[in-house]
UniProtKB/TrEMBL annotation:
An annotated GO BP: phosphate ion transmembrane transport
Protein name: Phosphate-binding protein pstS
Cited PANTHER family: PHOSPHATE-BINDING PROTEIN PSTS
Entry's family note: Belongs to the PstS family.
Listed CDD domains: PBP2_PstS, TM_PBP2
Record carries keyword Membrane: yes
InterPro entries according to UniProt: ABC_phos-bd_PstS, MetI-like, MetI-like_sf, PBP_domain, Phosphate-bind_PstS, Phosphate_PstC
Subcellular location as annotated: Membrane
Molecular function terms from GO: phosphate ion binding; phosphate transmembrane transporter activity
Keyword Cell cycle listed: no
Length: 631
């Protein structure tokens, strides 16, 4: 009878937990009606206005993080954002990183203005070849013969040209370098087209459009490239650029729109380069895209969520276009808007088979729980609820209690997780903020991810041959028996295992900090340390808490390395070096020896307790992450 009761209780418990948690998350989503997006900073002003208007009209909030085009693409591929935003369309290599088809939705057009600061207050004309030579350092003076030939009616000053360029990766740099590569063979072969360029050494780097604009405004003799809206805001002079028809054209809303008066491919991925910019079209123009998955049935997304995203994008390319011109963006030509709406209609909002598969995870959890509960019934028949409150573990006398192992599990976790946090945070800050574009950052990121993939039994072997001898030395110095294995060794090795997992989580949280906040801090003269302390850390504090909880869930169930180092003694921890046991280690050590049915059943009970513990930590972590993403 007790077997039936225990199985029924377990089934009811896990079904209630799953349904309750699913209802909670769904309710939060419906109540807030929030769409999550991230990406390019260039369209941030117009997107902010669009999203503000859309919230007033529909009650749907868009949480958009301006973290750069590359960040938006990464978050889309990681499926942590519902859409990404990019100034440079995803190339074939990037698209191949996803197994599912990705749609490109152009939203507005922008112009990359060539801005300059000359105290002589002259009107300047340039072509692509001359621009390339200036930015490569081949032309160093404003009165260089090649510049003079384009400006014969102007008395150019005999002063050095100071080149201001982006120091961070950006879609603006991609569009500008694309124009230079088309115009100059040396640039094409030596510098190429990229979001990040290895610039000539005499150039001056500045972060973001704000940084470049600020440097230009305050530096006589300077030249740089910025998005039109930033140049207009600071009233910086703009050069007229020679287009494919031989006309010198300044960037305006009209001239940028004219650059898009052409047929575009069905996937909308097109470069509006000088080769196709004729008439009065401005040659350094570009779309800015929102990218999303064509098949929306992923990560348990509902039909309502997919329809909400579809409706937002449809509104942005139609009614939302009214917000483009006041902010110095060019709206989409009507012919292109029509094509974009057809692309949006290809979104698959729900896949029927997904409904069936979506039940596999909860059914598996419930099935495992029923199996463990049924197996535990015999021990429960003997011990009752004393099983959960007793510290006895005596298979000979058939006395079983989980309390020692429950305490060992949570104590090792509560020590190991805080030990890992400083190292995880340091790695995350290094690769995300301190040296984000360097080769070393990529190497460190790959190594961190690689460590996370090492089997725990290998980490256990490393712990036995490296950590244990060191702990024995410490024990000798402190007067403890030099046994090496035990609580402290386990915590050290478990902390090492958590570091890569936690570092990757923190890296993604740091990348969510709006780029504008960091650029504003640097513009005000903040040091890197001050920016990290007063801007980044306050903005990621809640995210770090949620990441820590996920790391806790990861460490609770760790088995092999813990089993090899814990000491496997069924007593509470008496001091930092004491051997003890955890729920996973007792199962791994004694399951093969459990020939007594009650003994076997008690181990199943420990398994059930471990599942319940992990499940509660997971529920709380996911709920907190959901709340953080909404807020």
């Amino acid at each position: 009878m007790k077997k039936i009761i225990v199985s029924a209780l377990a089934t009811t418990l896990f079904t209630a937990l799953f349904v309750g948690f699913a209802t909670l998350v769904t309710a939060c989503g419906k109540e807030e009606k929030t769409i999550l997006g991230s990406g390019a900073s260039f369209p941030y002003p117009v997107y902010s206005k669009m999203f503000e208007d859309y919230l007033e009209k529909t009650g749907v909030r868009v949480n958009y993080q301006s973290i750069g085009s590359g960040g938006g693409i990464r978050q889309l591929l990681a499926q942590t954002a519902e859409f990404g935003a990019t100034d440079a369309f995803m190339d074939d290599e990037e698209l191949q990183q996803s197994e599912d088809e990705i749609l490109h939705i152009p939203i507005v057009l922008g112009g990359i203005a060539v801005a300059y600061n000359l105290s002589e207050k002259i009107e300047l004309r340039l072509d692509g070849d001359t621009l390339a030579k200036i930015f490569m350092g081949d032309i160093k003076k404003w009165n260089d013969p090649q510049i003079s030939a384009l400006n014969q009616s102007v008395n150019l000053p005999d002063k050095e040209i100071i080149v201001i360029r982006r120091s961070d990766g950006s879609g603006t740099t991609f569009g500008f370098s694309d124009f230079l590569a088309f115009s100059n063979e040396k640039w094409k072969n030596s510098y190429g087209v990229s979001k990040s360029i290895k610039w000539a050494k005499d150039t001056i780097g500045a972060k973001g459009n704000e940084g470049v604009s600020g440097q230009l405004k305050n530096t006589d003799g300077s030249i740089g490239y910025v998005n039109l809206n930033y140049a207009k805001t600071l009233d910086i002079p703009l050069a007229a650029i020679k287009n494919g028809s031989g006309n010198f054209v300044k960037p305006t809303i009209k001239s940028i729109s004219l650059a898009a008066q052409k047929n575009i491919p069905d996937d909308t991925r097109v470069r509006l380069s000088a080769s196709s910019t004729l008439g009065e079209g401005y040659p350094i123009s570009s779309f800015t895209w929102i990218v999303l998955y064509k098949e929306q049935a992923y990560n348990d997304r509902t039909k309502e969520q997919a329809e909400k995203l579809h409706d937002l994008l449809s509104w942005m390319v139609t009614e939302g276009q009214q917000h483009a011109e006041p902010l110095y963006y060019s709206p989409l030509p009507q012919k292109i808007s029509g094509k974009v709406l057809k692309v949006l209609e290809t979104m698959t909002k729900l896949r029927a088979l997904t409904i069936v598969f979506s039940f596999s995870a909860p059914l598996l959890v419930i099935g495992i729980s029923i199996t463990l509960a049924y197996g535990f019934a015999e021990a429960f028949d003997v011990m009752g609820f004393d099983f959960f409150t007793s510290s006895d573990w005596d298979p000979v006398e058939d006395r079983y209690g989980v309390l020692v192992f429950l305490a060992g599990t949570f104590l090792t976790t509560l020590v190991a997780v805080p030990l890992s946090l400083p190292f995880s945070l340091a790695i995350a800050l290094l690769v995300s903020e301190i040296i984000p574009e360097s080769t070393y950052a990529k190497i460190i990121s790959r190594m961190t991810e690689g460590i996370a993939a090492i089997p725990s039994v290998i980490i256990g072997l490393w712990g036995i041959h490296t950590i244990v001898p060191l702990v024995q030395l410490v024990q000798n110095q402190l007067g403890y028996p030099p046994i090496g294995v035990g609580f402290f060794s386990t915590c050290l090795v478990l902390a090492f295992m958590i570091i890569p997992f936690s570092a990757v989580l923190m890296r993604e949280v740091i990348r969510l900090v709006p780029k504008e906040l960091k650029e504003a801090a640097y513009a005000l003269g903040a040091t890197r340390y001050e920016t990290v302390r007063y801007v980044i850390l306050p903005n990621i504090r809640s995210g770090l808490v949620a990441g820590t909880l996920l790391s806790t869930g990861r460490s609770i169930g760790e088995t092999m390395a813990v089993t090899m180092l814990i000491g496997n003694v069924n007593y509470f921890v008496e001091n930092i070096f004491s051997p003890t046991n955890t729920m996973s280690s007792i199962i791994a050590n004694e399951f093969a020896e459990a020939v007594n049915p009650v003994y076997y059943s008690a181990l199943m009970g420990i398994g059930l307790t471990l599942v319940i513990s992990t499940f509660f930590v997971s529920i709380f972590s996911r709920w907190l992450l959901r709340r953080l993403s909404i807020n």
